[in-house]
């Protein structure tokens, strides 16, 4: 079932999203060589709880941390630990928060110190594909047109979109219908309606699109060991476009 939210519900989702955005602001300065992913996760957990919310990922299907922190060839669902970030790496951080029964969700990829040209281009193209996909979000639009736009931009730049993982609806649950692939043919799928709330999240690999899950049963990595980037917005569909609820300036 695809939910259409009332304005009151959207305001509650927006509040949870604002906590996610502020959490990113808090941790941004921490993302540097020498910091452990566990330390970043600790700060994420502390800040979200300080706002009267709870980390949405902690305990979700048994996930042990408050943030998914995925380094280099790790695509998503990386478990924070004692690993120290190193100069020249990229790291994707996915954060969710739940407050008053409603969820917000967003992801960003960060450069750790100075990175090479191709990693920077990977990050830029991934964010561009998200921004361009979001431009198509409006009532009456076919969902697959967003997916197709993302794929076109990514593959046009010589990168690949992950096929095994998708975006999703969000609201009273962290993951709701509809599923939102980052690839596909245009002009198909459900039509968007004002009041839908979506988490759109291209996951883009420098190499091929195939992925594997590590023995921890969570961390998804690129099959060929290439670097991966991930950006995500939670957006609310409106009659004349959309409102990005997790826009980070």
Alpha-carbon distance between the two ends: 33 Å
Order of helices and strands: HHEEEEEHHEEEEEEEEEE
Q: Which stretches are low in confidence, meaning pLDDT under 50 for 5 or more residues running?
A: none
CATH architecture level-2 label = Alpha-Beta Complex
CATH topology label: Creatine Amidinohydrolase
Helix content: 25-40%
Most strands sheet: 5 strands, antiparallel
The best one-word shape is: globular
- Helical stretch count? 4
Structural category = alpha+beta
Number of strands: 15
What is the CATH class designation?
A: Alpha Beta
* Average of per-residue pLDDT values: 97
- Percentage of residues in DSSP E strands: 25-35%
Topology summary:
Blueprint: H1 7-27, H2 37-50, E1 54-55, E2 67-71, E3 74-76, E4 90-99, E5 102-111, H3 117-134, H4 143-156, E6 160-161, E7 167-169, E8 176-180, E9 197-200, E10 203-205, E11 211-213, E12 220-222, E13 228-230, E14 233-238, E15 241-244
Helix pairs in contact: 1-2, 3-4
Concise structural overview:
Helices cover 27% and strands 27% of the residues. By secondary structure, it is α+β, with helices and mostly antiparallel strands. The longest helix has 21 residues, at 7-27.
Structural features, described:
With 249 residues, the protein is an alpha+beta fold. The chain has one domain (7-244): Creatinase/methionine aminopeptidase superfamily (Creatine Amidinohydrolase, Alpha-Beta Complex), CATH 3.90.230. The chain contains four helices and 15 strands. The protein has helices spanning 7-27, 37-50, 117-134, 143-156; strands at residues 54-55, 67-71, 74-76, 90-99, 102-111, 160-161, 167-169, 176-180, 197-200, 203-205, 211-213, 220-222, 228-230, 233-238, 241-244. The protein has a five-stranded antiparallel sheet with strand order 8-7-9-14-15. Strands 1, 2, 4 and 5 form a four-stranded antiparallel sheet that branches. Strands 3-12-11 form a three-stranded antiparallel sheet, with no helix packed on it. β7 and β8 form a beta hairpin. The longest helix has 21 residues, at 7-27. 48% of the residues are buried. The mean pLDDT is 97.
